[in-house]
Design a protein that fits this description.
By secondary structure, the protein is of the alpha+beta class. It is built from 11 helices and 10 strands. Strands 4-3-2-1-5 form a 5-stranded antiparallel sheet. A hairpin with a 6-residue loop joins strand 2 and strand 3. The longest helix is centred in the middle third of the chain and has 17 residues. The C terminus is likely disordered.
């Protein structure tokens, strides 16, 4: 290996496969289907030469700080054969600095202004350490220059995102994310009358925000208001069929609710096996023993219900002409239908909606072990 190898220079930018930098399971969580092919960029901080005794050969190891995404940096030591010199894609970098985009009267035309060249040109001018940092100032609402006229909501959003050169943003998964509170208030499909959400009770009351200040209803009662009563009955009937076949005691509706409660309680503990939840030995002097036996259900009974619980009616054998996909969904089809029908009859939504799982972090296509993020 030549002494002039740029990879041996402190501060040089290099690349390596992400699976060589962090564990493969972490790569699957972060990059999904790209877990074995994702390449990350790092900065060399140390170079060591090691001589092996048997054959007296010299191996070179490079220690670098790699940007693994999401603002995280991982320091890893790799053999020089697993490290390549970082080479920016010259085909997409302009040969000369791009001229500033002049302001135009028609803001809608800004939608056609490409932003990619500007972002890639900055990549050449910014040091690796600066690329790993988020903006120093907090994200703020992107406004429009004072006195500037904007026609229509589409033009307004365009000016907010592309018309302000010093707008704050966060780069995540090679995508720029801007703060724009005004864009969420645009009436895309017309105005909607403001209203509060509510829950219809069996006696005809409507529960909404601040309607139960005195705490008249318990948590269990709120759960029962939202859970379909016929689903509880169906689950007991279907599960008892399985229990009887194995000479186990039948389950009552109350025991099923206790089973649900234990499932929810288990989310408050860290454990590697379910048996630890029934342990009466404290894991440390700061954490009490789980002692799930105090719930009134033994570990053996919980395991029996866990193995035999049924949520929906499924045919014992797949009928001829039915796809395996349809047959598998029979395990939950009835439950989904009952739940949706119950919600339609009891829950009155407000004028606001929220994207499902919007609080969940996005790990890219196929993230979370190869599957999508819902």
């Amino acid at each position: 290996m030549s002494e002039g190898d740029s990879r041996r220079k402190i501060g040089a930018q290099v690349t390596a496969k992400a699976c060589h930098v962090v564990h493969l399971s972490e790569c699957a969580r972060r990059y999904g289907a790209l877990r074995t092919t994702k390449v990350v960029v790092g900065t060399v901080v140390e170079v060591n030469n090691t001589r092996k005794a048997p054959n007296n050969r010299v191996s070179t190891f490079i220690t670098a700080d790699f940007d693994i995404g999401g603002g995280s940096v991982k320091r890893s030591t790799l053999n020089i054969r697993s490290v390549k010199l970082f080479k920016p894609d010259q085909s997409t970098v302009p040969s000369s600095p791009a001229a500033p985009i002049p302001a135009v009267d028609n803001a809608d035309t800004d939608l056609a202004v490409p932003e990619q060249e500007e972002g890639e040109a900055v990549l050449q001018e910014t040091s690796p350490d600066e690329e790993l940092e988020f903006p120093a100032q907090p994200m703020m609402e992107i406004g429009i220059a004072a006195g500037e006229q904007v026609a229509g909501p589409t033009a307004q959003v365009a000016m907010q995102v592309w018309g302000v050169e010093d707008a704050s943003f966060v780069m995540a998964h090679e995508t720029k994310w801007y703060a724009d509170k005004q864009a969420t208030l645009i009436d895309i499909n017309g105005s909607v009358q403001s209203k509060q959400f509510g829950i219809n009770t069996p006696i005809g009351d409507l529960l909404g925000p601040d309607s139960d200040i005195d705490g008249k209803y318990s948590r269990l009662q709120y759960f029962l208001l939202m859970f379909p009563p016929d689903q509880l009955s169906a689950m007991c009937q279907l599960t008892n069929v399985q229990l009887v076949q194995q000479n186990k005691h039948c389950m009552s509706t109350g025991e099923l609710l206790r089973f649900f409660g234990i499932l929810i309680l288990a989310t408050k503990f860290e454990f590697s096996s379910r048996s630890q939840l029934w342990s009466t030995t404290a894991p440390s002097k700061y954490i009490p023993a789980p002692a799930f036996g105090k719930t009134g259900m033994s570990r053996q009974r919980f395991d029996d219900l866990w193995r035999n619980i049924r949520w929906s009616n499924q045919c014992p054998e797949r009928p001829e002409g039915m796809s395996s996909h349809t047959f598998r969904w029979q395990l939950v089809d009835d439950f989904v239908e009952r739940y949706n029908n119950h919600r339609a009859n009891t829950f009155k939504p407000s004028h606001l909606i929220c994207v499902d799982e919007s609080m969940s972090r996005w790990y890219g296509q196929g993230g979370g072990g190869g599957g999508g993020n819902g």
